[in-house]
């Protein structure tokens, strides 16, 4: 028996409601073509095969914040839903979503790969643990003394865990291709208000930092990040150290070195001081990176909000489902939140179909 894409964890609309909605071919718009918008699109097309779906976005693929991310599945405690239970459910559902892709023929094209990771600290044992994922990843354990020697000197604490990583350089084009091949439409434009949209039965708002202006949401704050993309085909393991240092391998031999977390900074330019500090910390962690070939530097503003906003709103009779504010964890947690957003949207459509019967 084929499990559904979330490993049987998705609440689904009843078949009869879905058939009624399918017959009616609802017109749906998804605003935003980052990892959140396109994951909503994927789930939506699977749940509602005959829906007329349009993605409306100002930026696509390599121009999105999603494309800056390394995309590793390792949440921090700043990723928060409205309660711990919801946060954990989003994380768990996301994990099974990525596992389903990982064991499919699409894994390579979708940019999903398994990654082994070490997280070390010179100062604090607790930062090497992660209670949000220790119960779902196959391995999460403390390192032994020999493993501390894998990196440079002076590291006192460490954990090893196995996880997954999604490279948006592949994932976004993969979803977009599949979406268009199933009849999905794409419009390239900026949306400055919900009321400026043509008539849709349902709109998903997945605009990341753009939601700050579209929704006048003061709770949405950027956390600026900056990374190097380097050529390191020999690197097969991820390493984390103190002060936001991380080294994450990727497909095509391109690794991501980071990083910084600058709260409320809107600077989208590469900062040479940040660059120097990032490189110094990464080489300090893994000396083999000295003089590594740099292929690019990227800056992205993580859309941070507590809690992440997954809820519906009626705006001038338009049914809107918001899904934004994932901070530094939007790649890994896109599926869990998108599943809930789609469920909320389908419930809204179902209730309006029922009221017409
Ligand atoms: C340096 C760095 C490292 C990261 N590492 C990781 C990691 O390892 N793991 C992880 O899970 N996450 C990571 N993240 C976080 C992750 O990148 C974000 O949480 C995620 O990309 C948010 O996705 P999004 O779709 O909401 O936003 P975006 O990718 O920004 O997409 C938003 C989309 O909406 C469109 N849009 C916005 N406003 C409008 C408008 N008014 N009209 C039309 N279109 C609009 C944009 O053009 C864009 O297409 C990292 C982020 C950074 C910066």
UniProtKB/TrEMBL annotation:
Its cofactor is FAD. GO terms for cellular component: cytoplasm. The keyword Plastid does not apply. Residues 27-338 form the FAD dependent oxidoreductase domain. Keywords: FAD, Flavoprotein, Oxidoreductase. FAD binds at residues 191, 207. D-dopa binds at residues 246, 302, 328. It holds the Pfam family DAO. GO terms for molecular function: D-amino-acid oxidase activity; FAD binding. One of its GO terms (biological process) is D-amino acid catabolic process. Belongs to the DAMOX/DASOX family. This is FAD dependent oxidoreductase domain-containing protein. It comes from Leptosia nina.
């Amino acid at each position: 028996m084929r499990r559904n894409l979330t490993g049987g964890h998705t609440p689904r609309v009843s078949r009869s409601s879905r058939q009624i909605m399918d017959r009616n071919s609802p017109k749906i718009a998804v605003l935003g073509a980052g990892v959140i918008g396109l994951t909503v699109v994927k789930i939506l097309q699977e749940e509602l095969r005959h829906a007329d779906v349009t993605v409306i976005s100002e930026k696509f693929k390599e121009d999105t914040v999603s494309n800056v991310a390394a995309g590793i599945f390792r949440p921090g405690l700043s990723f928060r839903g409205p309660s711990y239970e919801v946060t954990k459910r989003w994380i768990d559902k996301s994990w099974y979503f990525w596992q389903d892709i990982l064991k499919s023929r699409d894994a390579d094209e979708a940019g999903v790969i398994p990654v082994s990771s070490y997280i070390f600290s010179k100062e604090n044992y607790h930062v090497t643990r992660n209670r949000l994922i220790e119960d779902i990843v196959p391995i999460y354990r403390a390192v032994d003394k020999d493993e501390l020697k894998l990196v440079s000197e002076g590291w006192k604490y460490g954990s090893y865990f196995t996880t997954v990583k999604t490279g948006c350089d592949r994932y976004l084009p993969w979803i977009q291709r599949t979406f268009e091949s199933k009849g999905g439409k794409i419009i390239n434009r900026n949306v400055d208000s919900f009321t400026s949209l043509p008539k849709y039965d349902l709109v998903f708002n997945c605009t990341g930092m753009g939601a700050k202006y579209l929704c006048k949401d003061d709770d949405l704050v950027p956390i600026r990040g900056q990374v190097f993309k380097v050529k390191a085909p020999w690197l097969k393991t991820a390493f984390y150290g103190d002060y936001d240092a991380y080294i994450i391998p990727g497909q095509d031999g391109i690794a991501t070195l980071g990083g910084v977390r600058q709260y409320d900074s809107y600077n989208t330019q590469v900062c040479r001081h940040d660059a120097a500090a990032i490189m110094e910390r990464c080489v300090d962690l893994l000396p083999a990176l000295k003089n590594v070939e740099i292929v690019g530097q990227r800056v992205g503003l993580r859309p941070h909000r507590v809690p992440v906003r997954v809820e519906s709103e009626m705006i001038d009779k338009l049914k809107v489902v918001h899904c934004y504010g994932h901070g530094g964890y939007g790649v890994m947690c896109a599926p869990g939140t998108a599943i809930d957003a789609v469920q909320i949207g389908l419930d809204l459509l179902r209730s309006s179909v029922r009221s017409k019967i």
